[in-house]
Amino acid sequence: MAAAAMMADxxxxxxxxxxxxxxxxxxxxxxxxxxxxxxxxxxITGVRTELHGLGTSLRVELHELDTSLRxxxxxxxxxxxxGLASNRIWMLLQSAAILAVxxxxxxxx
Length: 109
Known about the structure:
Layout: H1 2-105
């Protein structure tokens, strides 16, 4: 019985030694993970700063683009209005010319 108890103690000690070794590895892995996480947090802060700057520059560029497009649309609107007025004048002149030719042909004049 003493031999069996001694064998049980040796296997128990071997198991405990193995668990202690595994715990030591787990602790070192956790310490490395903490360092990695701290590094990532620093990187995330840098990325946030870059994104904030990028967002600000995008807002400025969008505002400039909006202003430019509004100016171009206003210019196109003016050009279109001028073109329509010019077309109306030409249509009236053509109609008058056709009426004059018809009046002459039918001897109304």
